[in-house]
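User: I've been trying to design a sequence by hand for this structure and keep getting stuck. Would you show me what you'd pick, starting by listing the structure so we're on the same page?

Assistant: Good idea, let's start from the same input. This is the structure you sent:
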């Protein structure tokens, strides 16, 4: 597809995404209600609509492989991080997990309000230990209530660093006491970071076998790294239980 076509479709998608928010304006005050159950149906509906627009306008869909690997909730999702795509659409795939997000997101007027009302957790990448403990405690409470948790082990979308695994991921796994599901994806190809352009194609989300509870932190980190690398090496996009979705 020519660059001109990519630019045109990207512009149309962003315009459509903003326009799609208009029907939800009357219910925006619900975001002020502390109970996330009140606003969640509307946030989910908008994300589903956004997924439809991504397919119809920008030509971006997704395929899920290995859905049969998902254990009963709650579980910890440990995913590679390539772009904002997974931040937007993983709530649809993994049943609205509590997510760890960089603190800057919580300063955005609308996005920050949605993140707070969704019960998501701010992470200070400057190394605030007290803040990290509070974040882990919030995740523990979420799991106790039966909610899944999402974390990006690298903590960054930087291609040079996004395959690393922070030590805190092992500590979180140890604390939560639930299986960890490794997830690999290639969202950066269609939804690249650092640009508003959207490139048509299919985002492949590969779900690996869950890592059982009870491993020591070092063994867990090694196992997670090995499984993510194995998922990345998979050449065929049609192995396992494959589901193509637009919403």
């Amino acid at each position: 597809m020519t660059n001109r076509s990519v630019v045109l479709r990207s512009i149309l998608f962003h315009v459509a995404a903003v326009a799609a928010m208009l029907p939800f304006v009357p219910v925006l005050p619900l975001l002020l209600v502390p109970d996330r159950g009140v606003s969640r149906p509307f946030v989910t509906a908008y994300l589903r609509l956004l997924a439809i627009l991504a397919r119809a306008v920008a030509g971006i869909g997704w395929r899920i492989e290995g859905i049969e690997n998902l254990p009963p909730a709650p579980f910890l999702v440990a995913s590679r991080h390539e772009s904002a795509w997974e931040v937007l659409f993983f709530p649809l795939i993994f049943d609205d997990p509590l997510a760890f997000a960089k603190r800057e997101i919580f300063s955005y007027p609308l996005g920050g309000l949605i993140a707070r009302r969704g019960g998501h957790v701010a992470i200070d990448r400057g190394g605030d230990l007290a803040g990290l403990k509070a974040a882990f405690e919030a995740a523990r409470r979420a799991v106790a209530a039966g909610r899944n948790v999402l974390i990006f082990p690298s903590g960054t979308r930087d291609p040079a660093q996004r395959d690393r695994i922070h030590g805190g991921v092992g500590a979180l796994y140890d604390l939560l006491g639930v299986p960890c599901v490794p997830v690999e994806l290639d969202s950066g190809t269609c939804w690249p970071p650092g640009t508003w352009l959207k490139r048509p194609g299919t985002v492949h989300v590969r779900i690996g076998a869950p890592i059982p509870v009870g491993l020591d932190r070092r063994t867990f980190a090694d196992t997670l790294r090995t499984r993510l690398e194995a998922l990345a090496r998979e050449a065929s996009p049609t192995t396992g239980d494959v589901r193509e979705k637009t919403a």
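That's my pick for every position. To get oriented when you compare it with your attempt: The two ends are 24 Å apart (CA to CA). The helical segments are 3-19, 36-58, 85-93, 109-117, 129-144, 167-176, 187-190, 217-233.
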